[in-house]
Amino acid sequence: MRTPERPPPTGLETRLAAMIKACGPISVDAFMAHALYDPQAGYYATRLPLGPRGDFITSPEISQIFGELIGLWVAQSWLDLGSPAPFQLIELGPGRGTLMADMLRVCQRVPGFMAALQLHLVETNPGLREAQQTALGSHPARWHQSLDDVPPGAGFILANEFLDCLPIRQYICAEQGWHEKLVGVDAEGRLTFGLGPLLPKPPPCAQPDDGIGAVREEAPGLAGLVDLLSRRLHTGCGRALLIDYGDRRGQPGDSFQALYRHQKVHPLDHVGEADLTAHVDFKALISLAKASGLATSGPVTQREFLQSLGIEARRDALIRANPHCESELTHSVERLIGEAHMGGLFHVVALESPLNTAHGPPIGL
Ligand code: SAH
Questions:
Q1: Domain annotation covers residue 31
Q2: Which residues line ligand 1 (CB under 6 A)?
Q3: 165 CA to middle of ligand 1, Å?
Q4: Does a structural domain hold residue 295?
Q5: pLDDT greater than 70 at residue 319
């Protein structure tokens, strides 16, 4: 809900409002793309979003155990696929580089892994690229604007809380039929939500049993991203591991969310200063991946995934070695695997190259 006192408009809101006044309302995905990626004032172009002084905290920032277990997953996958050399390890949206640094600490214990590794980071935010460089220390890495720029070849692709940045369109079922939700301008010149004209037919994401008031979302960029992943995974053996928050059953609902300094705010406030996300539609992701010729595993919840990789045993070992950290370790692992926390909300999916010779699903899925 909107707070009674709206914060003053940011420069980006004023710019978007002028554009909308001149050209008409825009779809939610267009708004999200401007708010996140405007080169001068977009959230991901200009801000350092993560950590206590940012706007949100991700799993690798909660505990080193998260990155260590993902490192185990990658190392085991590399062995399963016959230790390809060289191979690429690609991370999409690596944040502060914490996940990669924690993973590499584990992976370097596997003989041959580091010698064969070529590290590629896909990151658009210049400040975060610097943080990633610092976190990686002496590990050589190459940075790219898009997955498309990474040279082809065998390898592993990781993405944690990356897909939730994909801009979404929203549709609402009203009495007469479906409308798209749009962003317009109110009498005071501030951004506001409204409905577009009645659509001639339901949007493709609508389901036959959706009732009045149902909200459906689709991320138009998801198909393009899955296509990119699929094209890569057709150039050499490998796997992609995608971890994000979202729904695996295809339930309707409005999941568009804004976080500003760790507080939920109205998505049309703090434009360019708040992180905007939406739930990932895992059902759509899986069907797009299958249609593009990839085998898939999951989705499983983050809880199931981390438990089967041994998170509790790792926590207990760390507690034995550092008894004074018991309550902090217990608390952070609970945040990662608790049903009501990230454990139940986040889901994990793996996509498999058709060139893989390994039999059976990857560990944890
Ligand atoms: N994976 C990290 C950070 C998640 S936040 C973690 O778990 O801590 C999202 C990350 O994706 C940030 O690094 C952000 O700058 C990056 N990002 C967002 N949209 C992007 C895009 N279109 N292309 C490349 N990187 C993007």
A1: yes
A2: 44, 50, 58, 60-61, 93-95, 99, 122-125, 128, 160-162, 165
A3: 8
A4: yes
A5: yes
